[in-house]
Specification:
Length: 336
């Protein structure tokens, strides 16, 4: 065990982009990996019930599967599955691997009520035997060379049983584990209980990744220190501060940290709007842009003003013109 811990701590730390339903789509993965500092991504979860999904479902959520499972900026992407039927999960994992997936990630952390009511996500943390069966069935079904990882929380109603669940996932065949350092009931309310994850990290031989409430470079170092984990996964923090991973890498390398100014972020905001407009139905026009702005305004006051101006509109021309005004006011190249 000591050798395993030493091996985990002897390599360069990684920063991973967390999957977030409704906002971290392939457009967002492309933008954030272009900005830099991110070492890996996971797709939004693909819901599995009791049957094999058509290939188009995987391609919709995971178009990078056709590009060697990498973003345009050569950052690896894993596909995440969510469900409670071991055979169906395994069947779809195999199908994804045949299309080209290199890593299958299993979601045991989603706190959404609708997901939990249908026996998916975090509610499975109450059923350690089911966790084991899902992972072991999937692992036994996957072709050699396809990696299997999992994501979990510290518990459902309370932060209990997390070590047993983590050990079950490892013994069933998970090769890497992300732990969101809160229970389902905690949701996304601060704080995250990073120190709880230390027991998992110390007992497992596989790589354990800390996730939850990492908004700044200081948070990053505190999360690593308290959890003992080498790698971190960041979701909302990267949406609020798109260059956070890059700032972390600068800090690790002893380089000066220069936060990305709003004038550059606005350029990406316009691009994201245009890209999502062409891949989502008109009745949802602007929804994903507004979700991103709801995070960006935590860092940039300009994003708050922009959000207030467009939040009630679903008119393409109005939103597009308002974004171009933002670009022009900040003297950015607006040739998109």
């Amino acid at each position: 065990m000591l050798n395993n811990l030493a091996n985990k701590k002897s390599r360069s730390p990684k920063v991973l982009l967390a999957p977030m339903e409704g906002v971290v789509d392939f457009h967002m993965r492309k933008i954030l990996t272009e900005i830099g500092g991110i070492d890996g991504c996971v797709t939004e979860f693909i819901r599995v019930t009791n049957h094999a999904l058509p290939s188009r479902v995987f391609l919709k959520h995971f178009p990078e599967i056709l590009s060697d499972c990498e973003t345009e900026h050569r950052v690896p992407v894993s596909v995440q599955l969510l469900g409670s039927n071991p055979e169906a999960i395994a069947l779809n994992a195999v199908k994804a691997s045949k299309i080209g997936a290199k890593t299958i990630d299993l979601n045991f952390g989603c706190p959404a009520k609708t997901v939990n009511k249908s026996e998916g996500g975090a509610i499975l943390l109450k059923k350690t035997d089911t966790l084991f069966k899902i992972v072991s069935t999937t692992k036994q079904s996957l072709p050699q060379g396809v990696k299997l990882s999992a994501k979990m929380r510290l518990g459902y109603e309370e932060k209990i049983g997390f070590l047993e669940n983590a050990q079950a996932l490892e013994s069933a065949g998970a090769e890497e584990l992300v732990v969101h350092a809160r229970s389902k009931v905690d949701g996304y309310k601060p704080p995250a209980y990073w120190s709880y994850v230390k027991a998992i990290q110390e007992q497992l031989s596989i790589n354990v990744i800390i996730n939850g409430e990492i908004w700044t470079v200081d948070d990053y170092f505190k999360a690593r220190d308290q959890s003992g984990c080498v790698d971190v996964m960041i979701g909302r923090g990267l949406l609020a501060k798109p260059d956070l991973a890059l700032q972390i890498k600068c800090a690790l390398n002893g380089e000066p940290i220069e936060a990305m100014p709003w004038c550059k972020v606005a350029h990406y905001v316009l691009r994201y709007f245009l890209q999502t407009t062409y891949t989502h139905p008109n009745k949802f026009l602007g929804n994903r842009l507004k979700q991103w702005l709801s995070y960006l305004k935590l860092t940039y006051p300009e994003a708050h003003v922009l959000m207030e101006d467009i939040k009630r509109s679903r008119d393409f021309d109005f939103i597009h013109n308002r974004l171009r005004i933002e670009i022009n006011n900040n003297k950015i190249d607006a040739t998109i």
